[in-house]
TrEMBL record:
Alphabetical list of Pfam families matching this protein: Sigma70_r2, Sigma70_r4_2
The keyword Transcription is annotated on this UniProt entry: yes
Listed GO MF terms: DNA binding; sigma factor activity
GO biological processes: DNA-templated transcription initiation
Membership in a protein family: Belongs to the sigma-70 factor family. ECF subfamily.
UniProt keyword annotations, A-Z: Sigma factor, Transcription, Transcription regulation
Domain RNA polymerase sigma-70 region: residue ranges: 7-72
Gene source species: Palleronia aestuarii
Ranges of residues in domain RNA polymerase sigma factor 70 region 4 type: 100-150
Gene3D superfamilies: 1.10.1740.10, Winged helix-like DNA-binding domain superfamily/Winged helix DNA-binding domain (1.10.10.10)
The keyword Transcription appears for this protein: yes
Protein's recorded name: RNA polymerase sigma-70 factor (ECF subfamily)
Lineage summary: Bacteria, Pseudomonadati, Pseudomonadota, Alphaproteobacteria, Rhodobacterales
Length: 165
């Protein structure tokens, strides 16, 4: 059976699942639409309906997880930016945040990227490896070096020493 026929046959179930895991019906519709688009673009999707069905459900689930993560990151970023853009404060946390931001800005772009992917956006090592197209071990060593460099800058380590790896 063709991919399109599988999709047509599964559409009611895909919609039901998407509606069940999303907050709003519109979000469920978007999940189904994105999953169908991915299925149609996929180079080698499962051919048999018995394999195609769970593959589509996983696609919808993963798309939903990605969307929830994006929303959480946006909320946290907006809250942090709102807080940091406000008037100066005597709050020690505000001062610490500003110090961390300044230290972060002195890091190499590679270090900023890996810290953003792992520590700010919350990606797993495997996901970050996929994003920057390097092995998982490289991600692990880069995040370790970047965290160490940031920590050194924050606590007053050798701030003139800039690592580029």
């Amino acid at each position: 059976m063709s991919r399109r026929r599988h999709i047509e046959r599964l559409l009611p179930e895909l919609k039901a699942y998407a509606y069940a895991i999303s907050d709003r019906r519109e979000d469920g519709d978007d999940l189904v639409q994105d999953a169908v688009a991915r299925a149609l673009r996929a180079e080698a999707p499962p051919r048999r309906l018995g394999e195609f069905k769970p593959w589509m459900f996983r696609t919808i689930r993963n798309l939903n997880t990605d969307e929830l993560r994006k929303r959480r990151v946006r909320r946290e970023y907006l809250a942090r930016e709102t807080r940091l853009s406000g008037e100066t404060s005597d709050d020690p946390k505000h001062e610490r945040d500003m110090h961390v931001r300044a230290a972060f800005a002195t890091l190499s772009s590679e270090m900023q990227e890996i810290l953003t992917l792992i520590d700010i956006l919350g990606l797993k090592y495997d996901e970050a490896a996929c994003v920057i197209d390097v092995p998982r071990g490289t991600v692990m060593s880069r995040i370790s070096r970047a965290r160490r460099a940031l920590r050194d800058r924050i606590i007053g380590g050798d701030s003139d020493k800039r690592s580029t790896s």
